[in-house]
Amino acid sequence: MEISYWIFVFSILLVFWVSGSSSIDNFHQPFPIVEPDPGHTKLRLSREGLEAISRITTPISAVAVIGPYRSGKSFLLNQLLSLSCDEGFGVGHMRDTKTKGIWVWGTPLEVDIDGVRTSVFYLDTEGFESVGKSNVYDDRIFALATVMSSVLIYNLPETIREADISRLSFAVELAEEFYGRVKGQDIAFEPAKLLWLIQRDFLQGKSVKEMVDEALRHVPNSDGDKNIDQVNQIRDSLAVMGDNSTAFSLPQPHLMRTKLCDLKDDDLDPMYVKKRGQLKELVASIIRPKIVQGKYLNGKEFVSFLEQILDALNKGEIPSTGSLVEVFNKGILERCLKLYSERMGKLRLPMPEQSLQDAHERSREEAMKAFEEQHFGRHHAKKSADQLDEEMKEVFKNVIMTNEYQSTRLCEALYTQCEDRMDQLQVLRLPTMAKFDAGLQQCNQSFEQECVGPSKANYEQRIMKMLGKSRSLFIKEYNQRLFNWLVAFSLVMVVIGRFIIKFILVEMAAWILFIFLETYTRMFWSAESLYYNPVWHFIVSAWETIVYSPILDLDRWAIPIACMAALGILYCRCYGRRKHGSQWLLPLYNHQKGGSNRPRSD
């Protein structure tokens, strides 16, 4: 039982693998490439036809035949391909349309066009105005055939009706959007060559060109009918497109149209056979490889192009040229947006807001200029341009946020650095206003030079407030610290003058300074008036001159100088006497009187 179960599972997997890996063996037959959806309003791709096209590696050109249903499109294609009805496109004689969607002949014709080996596919389209279809569906078929093909054969029986001209509204709009770009060296997208094919035995003394020109002539509209105005606009546009269209007449091949598939060339009207040959030559002369965005399309690229176009045409209720323009401009828009982003990405942030705005304007102008040079479409391109502008604005918003963040980081780091510097200056070993002011000025200058961007104004206020508070606090403690330092200094000099260098003048000067500071100032000056006294100002000036100057900073070098002085005194004490005797010192503490040493009286 278990063995049979696994055999069953293996069989199912084998069936799926075989079906998934199946491919077309015979390409000498027609394949559907586009089929109607169940509602018969939109289109969907058929993988069989796409496989027939994808295998082609050379540039591709497509010839599509459009027209009303039951107008002989499939038979005409078989004639152009020299195929019988049995082996070529299916030909129907019933009231319903035989071809559904768009079909392609699986074996392309290989031709040489201006030195380029080109594979030419022939496309059969579902006829217009058949029973059970909406006008929107017909519009989508017509639009897709117009965009896909390099040559668009408009197959019309007998004459040109107003409805036939109205059908060309999409082709006209498409040509107006794209045709202007074809004439330059950089060919972006070339609309299909329009071939008016009138199947009629007699033209009543007119050439087919005269017949088309007459049909495209303005119709009087004294009543102001909007429909007539719309058709007249199409007529005007088709007249402007004269160099992109041509006309040809083809007589009926035989009176018995239902028997055409059973007839040989010898049974057909000789004039028809002759004109059919001329039509083949005409089609061959106007075929060009399909060019999109400046390059030839091979099979896989053509299929990808077809998928994009079909997605665009299926959007919304009706197919629009605007949606096609968006598809063509999508890649260009992305490249221009990338160009803008790269230019903005090279900026060294943070930077001043005005400089950033100027850089944005320059980068935006460069991107918009690139878009103007490359974009598709004339009228509908504005939407893509607006979209590019909006996306650049979004990128610019992110750049602004990044600039603000970087500016905040930089200014915060400089603010913290200045704050730490002020804290260090508050606790100088030797308090000096000159050094404090120099440090404050240096901090302020470095902040002004290095802090840039939108956060500078805010941090400028903060740092000025912080520097002001730091200076007020320093000044408040400066006089008291200096007073204490002078008292300590006087006591130190008393010790040095009495016990180390034994120089009574130094000791006396130190005692005078100590008594002045501790006695006289307290007796005759208040604590507030002391710091405003000229004598105190003189002391402060002398202190500032000694302690700090651009050449010597005693706050940094006091300890090394003191150590060197101590070493010098030690040297003199130890080796000076031995070399010079006791006379090298002043004789105030070492004077000999009457040959005897008298101890110094206190």
From TrEMBL:
InterPro entries from the UniProt entry: G_GB1_RHD3_dom, Guanylate-bd/ATL_C, Guanylate-bd_C_sf, Guanylate-bd_N, P-loop_NTPase
Signal peptide feature range: 1-23
A Pfam family hit: GBP_C
Annotated GO MF terms: GTP binding; GTPase activity
Listed transmembrane segments: 557-576
Residue ranges of domain GB1/RHD3-type G in the record: 57-177
Keywords assigned by UniProt, alphabetized: GTP-binding, Hydrolase, Membrane, Nucleotide-binding, Signal, Transmembrane, Transmembrane helix
CDD domains: GBP
PROSITE patterns reported in the protein's UniProt record: G_GB1_RHD3
Stated family: Belongs to the TRAFAC class dynamin-like GTPase superfamily. GB1/RHD3 GTPase family.
Protein name as catalogued: GB1/RHD3-type G domain-containing protein
Lineage: Eukaryota, Viridiplantae, Streptophyta, Embryophyta, Tracheophyta
